[in-house]
Amino acid sequence: MDQIVSTAPTRVTGALVAQRVTELAQELESELIAFRRDVHAHPELSRRETRTTAAVADRLRAAGLSPRLLEGTGLVCDIGPADGPRTGLRADLDALPLQDTSGVEFASTAPGVAHACGHDVHTTTVLGAGLVLARLASEGLLSRGVRLFFQPAEEVMPGGALDILGTSELDDVERIAAVHCDPKIDVGTIGTRIGSITSAADAVSVTVSSPGGHTSRPHLTGDVVFALGQVITQVPAALGRRLDPRSGVNLTWGTVQAGSMPNVIPSVGTVKGTLRCLDVAAWENAGDLVRDVVEQVVKPYDVEVTVHHTRGVPPVDNDAAETTALEEAIRETIGADAIVLTEQSMGGEDFGWYLTKVRGTMARLGTRTPGGRTYDIHQGDLVVDERAIGVGVRMLAQYAAR
């Protein structure tokens, strides 16, 4: 007869952890909302997050933890067992150079700076999850180590995530998770997706030059403006025929500058834009392909061309197993109905850099009040339903504790 192995204790322990996570998150909710409001009122731009870093570190120390400050701004903090692989939870600290027009009583006190992307919520959510996990560890309910990452400079390319990758802090991290506010879905719901959830985002600049001349004699010089026109229209179209359309490659120009007189062919002109891509492999090759296509497009027009392609951030490519684990944590602490399939975004997120080294997943945290207005991120009037903080805390703490 085969031996029967009971799994009842594991199920009981899992249920106990989920129950404690929920209880502890509820105990912390009012404190965390107050913390988020303080951070929101005192936003700091990329690599200037001194006050925010100190506030997070002080609260972690008050919980008996030992955060390690990074060079400049940002910090990491370990919780639980020191041996074995760790689970990472990541938050971003920086705000945007926008005026806060939200009208809330805790609006930004810094002129022209606002938490208009929800990083104050991300920071508070990971802090809250860390405080819950610290309590679990003290109660003997945390079986694996956790490392919290409070990262600077997500809003600038190529992103403060590279500050973390430049250290040894990821060496013993086996998996990692993060959240991003989504004001298009209701509070209490969480958007998940296996595969690419955001796009790569690179900067592309093309400069065309020639001796210049008079518009009555275009045949005597390289026509910079005409050549730029071909770059603007033909290069994005050519990329669509040189790369797998399933990779989601998109090159969109945002600015063009050439000349100042209607009857003068200028000697130099520049067009700048962003190259976005949902597929990691296509992204790795797209830069060289852009250069090749641009050079072919302008070759007939007797001009010199310089192409600058600057790596921004890779796609956030969610691991299937970790996304499934995160969804299970949602079911255990919030409920199965809280999970919704999120759309792919062509926006960039430097969490993608972590996923080039460690398997992981990012979820979209619903921040819209049911029946209320739908806001957008990177807008000064962004308002979030602060109940989302408790939802995110429960999800991340349960994921890390599983």
From TrEMBL:
Stored NCBIfam families: amidohydrolases (TIGR01891)
Domain of life from the UniProt record: Bacteria
Coiled-coil stretches noted in the UniProt entry, renumbered to this chain: none
Name of the protein described by the UniProt record: Amidohydrolase
Domain Peptidase M20 dimerisation: 204-301
InterPro entries: Amidohydrolase, Bact_exopeptidase_dim_dom, Peptidase_M20, Peptidase_M20_dimer
Transmembrane region(s): none
